[in-house]
Amino acid sequence: MRDDRLEAKREAEQLDEPAAEARNLAERLGLDPYPVRYWVVDHDEMNELIAYGGFQQRYPHWRWGMNYDRQRKKDRHGLRKAFEIVNNDDPSHAFLQESNTMADQKAVITHVEGHADFFANNDWFGLYADRGEDGPNAVARLGRNADRLAEIGRRADVDREEVERLIDAVSALEDTIDQHSPVNAARDGDAIEPTSDGDDPREELQAKIDELDLSEEVQGDVFDEEWLASQDGGVEPDKPRPDVLAFLRDHGKRYDSETGKAVDREPWETTVIDAIREEAYYFAGQKVTKVMNEGWATYWESIMMGGEGFAGSDEFLTYADHMSRVLGSPGLNPYKLGFELWTHVELQAARRDVVDKLLRVDGVTPENFHAKIDIDEVADTLQPHPAIEGAGPAMLDELAELAADGDPRVDAEIVDRALSVREGDTDAADGPDIEAYPWKLLTYEGLAERHYVLSRPQHRNALRNLSRSTLEERARYMFDVDRYETVAEALADVDRTAGWSRMYEVRESHNDVTFLDEFLTDEFVRERNYFTYEYSQAGDEFRVASTDAAAVKRKLLLQFTNFGKPTIVVLDGNFKNRGELLLGHQYNGVALDEQQATATLKRVFELWGRPVSLATIQTEYDDKELRRAQRQNREPAGTEVGVRLQYDGGDVTEHELDDTIKSRIEADEVDYDTKPDEWLS
């Protein structure tokens, strides 16, 4: 009788060598990943991990069960198989599904090494926790939060339903953080104080009333306790605050339905808010770099599995099918988009390096570049050295000759050991397995040449379509140094690592928004036939809206700015001088979903304890204009109107928006530059 768990254990043990060699290859390619601990799990365990966001323990809440049920149904019906899940931690923990084939396991291991490198080196993940000796330590932090919130739910003096209700409210707002700042920024130096001297605002207000020298009767009728309570907690931020959750944590109260007033929170309530907000910052790094991260992992997986033969000859077809399904998934596919953008970054850098060299050849100018330069000859010259391209047992002698000459592309020590095994001077078990892992014969420089982007067949013509204006721009910033007499001399000086070096540089500082903003070029959009589509008010259907690169970029940027959700900020913590919270929707041309907006307002009310308003802009369409546009097969011209939605515990009401407030939330152009200058310097 087959014991599935024992079989799974044996299969897991077979992954020890591939995991170790994948790490060796990753490091030789220039990656610097966190250590990775691999775990093999069954379907049910994988579904649980996915439900928990890649962790084995989270705070108690009903949504984890819903996530699990949703993933289980997808898995059962073949809609989406999860090959792996990996978390951002030091060490990273990667969970592999035991039903994967060996080819799939190798693919996900190489993919995970790419993720672990991105986690360790992208600065957006550093906003969650400093990268000290202990690293992010996410498993411990999230485990500690789970224990704390579970303990609160078990307390005799705490209503479990109230805990669930609070978690629901905070979870609904977990994306209203300032993902561009460190987790403690809004709580430390930027915290808002009620008064300049730190005194109790209630006491100050009572002192001012006393100065009026009013009778006790008048004070009791006009300035009663209810009126004083309405003035309590009024905090007016000097600028819009993007971390709404932090503001609510620091200045919010709890609405007491019995008294109909706002009361101070219990300490356990603040603990719940702090725990969920901290976890929101942990997952923010993954959310703001989804395209970059998945594209990065996919790129290096393809280099290792396909380019370096990490998939054996009997596994390659399975791997090719695996990769085609990943890249061929419909919709906005972060794997495909990210992979193509990273390749574009690599291509741009390599092409720029070659162009810079060629423009320094005597007699070559931007005006005569295409007449003087034989593009086919350049492409042939840039092909890898035969011994580098075919590195392996058959090329051992040629590699030995290069090593003897001190060639930096060859690992002289490994070549020497391989020769010793071939000559019988060393036992094969003690030598490098260059049959299975020929990449061991090459250094980083050698591997960079072997995978040089301009030597790939699909990029042979990358220099052919360069415009004169592009060439002139490159030449404009060149100093009259490092001249070459011939094209061959210039090409001999080409840096084959230029593409990878640029990729590593970009990997450190960018997020998805800045990544798309900088590298989604006209060339990229044109060559890949990207387009935008929009809902037509006139036709009551979705239509292709534009193939213009700027329109495509704007559409994508809108989908990735602020996690693809509306940006909400705190405008006023004492709106109309009555302790009301005024939130502002930073309008970018996309209207709010009113149903979701009203539901969210109710959640905010639970954390503020007093009336809450949301300022936004809606587009209204005149019925006559709409009918006219339908007849003329064009889009109707709408009117943008400022609206303030208000919730005070009863019904959500709609009010006209003051023009001054409207001007604070509307923008002609959206600023997508989300890289804080202070920590990029």
Question: Any overview of this molecule?
Answer:
It is a single chain. Among the domains are: 195-232, no CATH class; 337-503, no CATH class. The protein is built from 31 helices and 12 strands. It has a 5-stranded mixed beta sheet, sandwiched between helices. Strands 1-3-2 form a 3-stranded mixed beta sheet. α5 (102-121) packs across α13, α6 runs antiparallel to α12 (267-287) and α25 packs antiparallel against α27 (549-560). Mean pLDDT is 85; it is low at 188-201 and 672-681.
H/I helix tally: 31
- Report strand order across the widest sheet: 8-9-10-11-12
* Biggest beta-sheet profile: 5 strands, mixed
Q: How many DSSP E strands?
A: 12
Low-confidence runs of at least 5 consecutive residues: 188-201, 672-681
Backbone structural class = alpha+beta
Q: On the 0-100 scale, what is the average pLDDT? A: 85
Strand content: 5-15%
Topology:
Blueprint: H1 4-13, H2 16-28, E1 36-41, H3 43-51, H4 62-76, E2 84-86, E3 92-97, H5 102-121, H6 138-154, H7 160-172, H8 201-211, H9 216-222, H10 225-231, H11 244-251, E4 254-256, E5 261-263, H12 267-287, H13 290-307, H14 316-327, H15 334-358, H16 369-372, H17 375-381, H18 386-389, H19 396-404, H20 412-422, H21 444-450, H22 468-476, H23 487-491, H24 498-509, H25 512-519, H26 522-528, E6 532-536, E7 541-546, H27 549-560, E8 568-575, E9 580-585, H28 594-608, E10 612-620, H29 623-631, E11 639-647, E12 652-656, H30 659-665, H31 677-680
Parallel strand pairs: 1-3, 9-10
Antiparallel strand pairs: 2-3, 4-5, 6-7, 8-9, 10-11, 11-12
Helix pairs in contact: 2-5, 3-4, 5-13, 6-12, 7-12, 7-28, 13-15, 15-24, 19-20, 25-27
